[in-house]
User: Fold this.
Amino acid sequence: MNPEIRRAAGILRAGGLVAFPTETVYGLGADASSAKAIERLYAVKGRPGNHPVIVHFDSLERALAYAREVPPAARILAERFWPGPLTLILKRSEKAKDFVTGGQPSVGIRVPSHPVAQELLKAFGGGIAAPSANRFGRISPTTAAHVREDLGSDVDLVLEGGPSEVGIESTIVDLSGGAAVLLRPGRISKAELEKYVELKEKTEASPRHSGGLERHYSPRTPARMVPTHALDKEISRLQDKVAVLAFSRPDERVDYWLRMPREPQGYAQKLYAALRELDGAGCELILVEAPPEAAEWAAVRDRLERACAG
Ligand code: TXA
Ligand code: MG
Assistant:
């Protein structure tokens, strides 16, 4: 076994925190069966104690053992999309403790595909609770360097795994209440899910989840979304030093300009690194050119709306 992975598994067994790469974003991992480890995880993240975390596994069998009931739709999605960027919310079994579910009767589970995550999960042999490896409410990390910038010495080890391929957090489907409900859009789109299961709309009764808070995934610099046709006018009107995230070519009047891919997967992959870069540019405002309204942009639009909220 890779000595770094062995060391990481040892740290987790001793109740420590290991940040590791997944195909979506980097996760901050702790032993899902240890109350003490999870307590430290929440303290480092600065996350309220009643927020549930996703538990990660190396295989479908281990993951589904955390569920009390596995509805047919859940098994279909698990078999089709795991390992991969999908989280399922299911009624929890006694293996899923209150401290990972935030006291809710459901648990979030996922089998990631990143080879380093897989190696770590196999070496550890149990569930690893892992929220994104950023402080609460901030931009999720998509490189090991982002994790170190955010968490510094509060994390015992950061495993290197290159830039995250998907770039935004997993798609979350809640199946804990019978019907399948899309709670968080991601790389696996609504249309893709609907090839396999019928999806119902989110309601007031859907479980709480922090990704559902209005302002989340936020840069420190105020950010505003602007439709393409209004971008030019907005730039000429502004006195402030502005940074722009756009599809088009840089405008000379603007201090800092990042050009993004015109297709949603490439855009998602670059999004969080781009927001971090613009946030660090020392501008008073970030202007974001709104992405198209088309369904394939839903996940990117969701993250941008949150980054621009508040
Ligand atoms: O891609 C991802 O999902 C990444 C990587 C590391 O796997 N993880 C991630 O975790 O984004 P986190 O904690 O930042 O976001 C997890 C979301 C939160 O909105 C959380 O509240 C929700 O999943 N969640 C987890 N368990 C839940 C449950 N039992 N019921 C409802 N929502 C749940
Ligand atoms: Mg997060």
In short: The chain has a mean pLDDT of 94.
